[in-house]
Amino acid sequence: MKSYVARRLARAVLLLFAVSVLCFLLTRLAPGSFFDEIRLNPQISPHTIAALQARYGLDQPLPLRYGRWARSVVRGDFGFSIAYNTPVAQLMWAPAEHTLLLGGVAMLLCWLISVPLAVWSAAYERSWFDRGVSALTSFIISIPEIVLALGLLAFAVRSHALPVGGMTSIGFDELTGWGKAMDIARHMLAPVVILVLVATPVIVRHLRASVAEVLHAPFVEAARGCGIGGARLLFRHVLPAAANPAISLFGLSLAALLSGSLLVEVVTGWPGLGPLILDATLARDLDVVVAAAMLGAAMMIVGNFAADLLLLAADPRIRTGSPDAG
Amino acid sequence: MNSQPSAPATPPPLLRVQELAKIYFRRGSLTHPGSRVQAVKGVSFSIEPGSTLGLAGSSGCGKSTVARCISRIERPDEGEILFEGHDLAALSFRELRPFRPAIQMVFQDAATAMNPSFSAAEIIAEPLLIQGIGTAKERAARVRQAMQEAGLPAEWSGRAAHEFSGGQRQRLTLARALVLKPKLLVLDEPLTGLDVSTRAQIANLLLEVQAAHGITYLFLSHDLFLLGHLADRIAVMSDGQLVEEGPTSQIMASPQHPETRKLLAASGRQLAPAGAGR
Questions:
Q1: Is pLDDT of A153 > 70?
Q2: Which one of A218, A224, A243 has the shortest CB-CB distance to B107?
């Protein structure tokens, strides 16, 4: 087990290194630079621009620039933002927290809704409840995320039911602790609803399918034949045996904690990583872009690793390397 | 395993099935009409305590449906299932619970009949848990006892079902059935899919268990030759109906119905399980 974790860690570090090289190279090779706009300004002389470029090391060959960037990663700075004139890590810390808050709440809600919905839907297969869930999930899946986001936003703006944009109201600092929490919650409602609407149908459909399959297995009949029914049958016997696809999905949703909500953040004005990355990309503030990509890759590795550990814990067939593991 | 002498004082049957019928409906959709399959119609038989009734028939004849109705995994559409005088067919899932320990079922495919996410001990202890029997310690003792009775080392209780071989898995499902000390064991093709020597071992184990506890067996098989070794009486099903029933010797010696002759001819070509003779 220890050597397994060590192997996975070593592979993760190697993978992150490869991702960093690729990201760094691709962003540098892409056309455009941070100073393009300044160049258009006739009041700034080419000399000034050349001096600025030299100051940020942009005139050096790529391997040297990568080495310089890698050293700043080791220092914990993750590069330097030219636009904000600060180390990237400092710049990203607060938005990452906001994104994590939004993503975490959305993910929690999403799973709390999906699991019972999927299990009950499968348990009452072909009932009106099941058909309703199935119709609703396919309907929502077929709507693009952006349309869903804009639709809800339009509703929020016109009905004045929800605050739109930002994370806090103007008088936030005067509020008490509870009031602050409620204020954030009200601002979070619109983006959370969009995120839940986007993620839930996928999980419900996958989990419903695997639960329905397990419900027809002879061991479920055997359990029924012993008098086991209702919630105990569904949640103790069926769900663990049907959980594997859901656990893999859980790993993916863990991986999407920091990167899944970027579009929704931009649309709803949530001060998370989304707006920051969008601005950085448009301004060619390359170190911020690379750091964001690295963050996404790291979260993907963490999510997959967590899913693998959970699968190991949940399924004895995987634990002992059986070929018929499902 | 002694067949009851046909003395006038025969004990009341443990199980009496009367006019059992089960119909399956396949629900249609917008483009396909639904269909109706009568899996079982008008099946009646009874089993004396401590004896074995062999229920023979080719696949699809409805014998599994009969078994599933008796162990009340399914609810029959018509008929009575009188177990010690109680009509199980009329009871609800909740009302059935006190009767569940007395009737246990062993399935054909042991690999799929056990929860893949459970250990052997969990698989065997679950029926005890749901019946609320014993403390954790007593349950563990009964799990060990059931495993030993089924010929499995009790130290293997921590293993998952897939870590057992085919024959051991069938022993495991037998242990799960035995842990509740049933009076009637419904065995749905328990030897099918096992190799010849394993079949013989399991068949002998079933005979030992029956001799030790006086459990009544309803033994389903397509193999009349096997039932000839194991059963006191044999009933033959075809197309959802019972077509012939009688003492084993009579069925084997002078089969009357064409279906019985067909089954006999088909099973004659197979090897009898060595040592399973009576």
A1: yes
A2: A218
